[in-house]
């Protein structure tokens, strides 16, 4: 909060949350996530910037991992955007790839977008 303080005619103000316009916002956010989830990373949870994946072998294990993840989020007052959440899936799109239990493939929609680009004109 100290680093985002600014003064106006009406008083001194500061952000309660980090605005993502700051140059180090992404790195600070990633550091915070690694710090908060250090004991679950690479076991139950995968983190990359603003993506979280709770992984498991069975439905029961998945529910336990989600419960643990939600308790941690609640403890640190973090919120998820429900429109961006998906639960209980066996595959999904992540960082331009289609990820499943057996394989990681390039997202065909990304390939189509590149193939359909118009040729350079200059």
Automatic annotation (TrEMBL):
InterPro entries: DNA/RNA_pol_sf (IPR043502), Rev_trsase/Diguanyl_cyclase (IPR043128), RNA-dir_DNA_polymerase (IPR053134), RT_dom (IPR000477)
One Pfam match: RVT_1
Domain Reverse transcriptase: 11-98
Highest taxon in the source lineage: Eukaryota
Name this polypeptide is given: Reverse transcriptase domain-containing protein
Organism in which the protein naturally occurs: Hibiscus trionum
């Amino acid at each position: 909060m100290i680093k985002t303080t600014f003064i106006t005619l009406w008083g001194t103000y500061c952000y309660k949350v980090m605005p993502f316009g700051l140059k180090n916002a992404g790195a600070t956010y990633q550091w915070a996530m690694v710090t908060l989830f250090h004991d679950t990373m690479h076991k139950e949870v995968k983190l990359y910037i603003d993506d979280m994946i709770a992984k498991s072998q069975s439905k029961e294990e998945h529910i336990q991992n989600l419960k643990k993840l939600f308790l941690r989020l609640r403890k640190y007052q973090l919120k998820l955007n429900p429109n961006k959440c998906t639960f209980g899936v066996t595959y999904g799109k992540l960082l331009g790839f289609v990820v499943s239990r057996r394989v990681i493939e390039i997202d065909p929609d990304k390939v189509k977008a590149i193939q359909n680009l118009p040729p350079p004109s200059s």
